[in-house]
Amino acid sequence: MRPTETLAKEHELVILVTKAAEEEVRYIRDTGEFRPEVVDELVDFFEYFTEGCHDPKEEHLLFARLRLRGLPAETGILAEFYREHQEFHSRLRDIEHWVRAWRKTETGDVNELVTHLDGYLQLMRSHVAREDELLFPMANELLTDEDQEELELGFDSIECEEVAVGVRERYRDLAHLLAGRPTETLQKEHKICYLVIAAARRRSTAVRGGDEFHPENVAQLIDFLRYFDECHDHKEDNRLFAKLAERGMSTSTGILAEMMQDHGDLVTRLVAIGDGLPRARSGDRQAIIHLLGQIDAYLKLLEDHMHKEDDVLFPMVEHVLTYHDLEELAREYESDESQEIIEGVHEKYFDLAHKLAVT
Ligand SMILES: [Fe+2]
Ligand SMILES: [Fe+2]
Ligand SMILES: [Fe+2]
Ligand SMILES: [Fe+2]
Questions:
Q1: pLDDT tens-digit profile of 133-144?
Q2: Out of 80, 94, 183, 248, which residue is the most buried by the measure of CB atoms under 10 Å away?
Q3: CATH number given to 3-179
Q4: Is the pTM of this model over 0.90?
């Protein structure tokens, strides 16, 4: 394999983990919560694989040979890449420092972490794309056949060390683990919904205690729950549950049947809440209390439902579905989500969830 092909293959793994990391950043941004063990794994990958195995092949072997063939190191494209390798290093330190400081007190501004990670990942995508599209074709023009052979041998000797410690396999598994577990996507969405439920309960208690009733809060809550129902339940009903049924799980009795029944009940109850809103809006106290009762019952059902999915159904999924099924689901979820992002609805509803959760 030509040296630039080896590097491009490594880039595929780097991008796979970058994608998983971007997903994690989105989770942190949406929930305000971060999982130190996941961030540790990501930092570990970039430190060990990218900085420890990949960049040295570029700097010590490929770039060094390109300099011999006349490409300047102080200006132009090589200078840019050397500088960016340094920048990755210092940005990764910032991320590590943040996590270390957080561990001491278990507090910290997660927005800072999001900014650090975001900057790192964006630079990574752009760096890798420029190496693949600009540098590698240029290198293949400049290098002689002898250069190519010698570099290949040099790469092989580094490669041996990597294979010995199973680096590649370990990180490929990590990337799949982070990016490819469809139930994790659903659990992350549950997490956001739990926050909205807690906030809605706080408001409901306050209104019962005499606080003013704001119909627009209920309208926003309905709006969020409708979206949640459309996007989240679609991922369950039409994707996950359909696959589980295909693999033989009963849809007429048992947990799957129960979850499907809940989805139907939730839709009906949400329509009833929407219907009750105009009377409550007019200020009729009895109508307001009735509406709050309907909302509380809805939220209780939704919460119990999600707990059953989290605790009972999702743990079964990996035993029922094949690895291929899981990968297919992860791809479908990814395309569902990119559609939501393109249409701007994801952003809108997560903003709304934040607003609902902090009020
Ligand atoms: Fe590089
Ligand atoms: Fe690279
Ligand atoms: Fe569900
Ligand atoms: Fe769910």
A1: 999 999 999 999
A2: 183
A3: 1.20.120.520
A4: no
